[in-house]
Design goal:
The protein is α/β, with parallel strands linked by helices and about 375 residues long. It has helices at about 10-20, 35-40, 45-55, 80, 95-110, 125-135, 155-165, 190-200, 215-230, 250-260, 275-285, 320-335, and strands at about 60-65, 70, 85-90, 115-120, 140-145, 170, 185, 205-210, 240-245, 270, 295-300, 315, 345-350, 355. Helix 1 crosses helix 3 (about 45-55) and helix 10 (about 250-260) packs across helix 11.
Length: about 375
Amino acid sequence: MTEKPIPKYMQLKNELLSWIQSGRMKPEEKAPSEHEIAGQFGMSRQTVRQALGQLEKEGWLYRLQGKGTFVARQETRSLQQSSMIGMMTTHISDYIFPHIVRGAEARLRSGGYSMMLSSTDNDKNKERENLEMMLSQPFKGLIIEPTKSAQGNPNLELFLSLAIHRIPFIMINERYPELHCPCLKLDDEAGGFMAAEHLIELGHREIAGFFKTDDLQGANRLKGFTRAFHKHRLTLGRDTVTHYTTEQKHTVPYEAALRMLQSPQRPTAFVCYNDELAVLLLEAVRQTGLSVPDDLSIIGFDDSTLATATEVKLTTLSHPKQEMGIQAANMLMEMMERRHTEAPKDVIYKPELVLRSSTKPLEL
């Protein structure tokens, strides 16, 4: 199913909401005018008006006739917060996250709940700040994406405090191994395996992989990638797997791809951690005078809007995105309303290979 694009006013609303929640816009402070926001974001006044209207409706802003729009004090939202759900992700307005957020927000609203968004920017310290904020306010439940889940959990005591305060929470995309909360996630290992095996079945043997390994999603995609080689009794070439962290995502894989593509024994295919990286590496292919898929096949991951945004349409692995947001909200509401005596079971989504024009059989 093709993902519907996030309306511009919702993207703007989420961005302005992050300003309020981070303190960039403070209580009782006058918000920028419609004209100022429209100019800053390159959007129409009508789009800005819709975004501000949503924030006003949810109690984040209030309007004074003849004076402008102001940020509401937290106490003025106390009644609304009695049914407030917190949602913390590594990002809010980037990549696949708006679709996840939209799914959760729509379902929670239909169930009579409001949602407060926060982002960690994939930073452990910001995760701690957000958790401390959430523990200080009357949230009924939380939907959380862990930050750099492959690099430990220095904020464990705060997650345990949620349990002590009987605040139900679930995790999406991954879960810290030491926690016992329900989780909705993709079978990332299966996805990595499917990507590599598809290329092997097309005749490729010199296949390079690029994986962000500070989160468990990347570690598991790499695990599946190597399992495909083991199954087909193939060996990985030296230096053909590139590991990188969030902070390195714009540099390390790109530079590694350029080196590989300029080598006499260059790979014939790439498997990328996600579509965002695949699009970046398409530029590396162009820089070396090669083309996709004639000279190089490439596979992304997540079937994001980026997969079809360039002239090369990416073969990729699916991610449930909006469905995950909806199911996360359903699961959390069941926990909060105690519809079941037992904790909900994990939801593991099976990825599907989405075939497009970035892959083709290897011509010998």
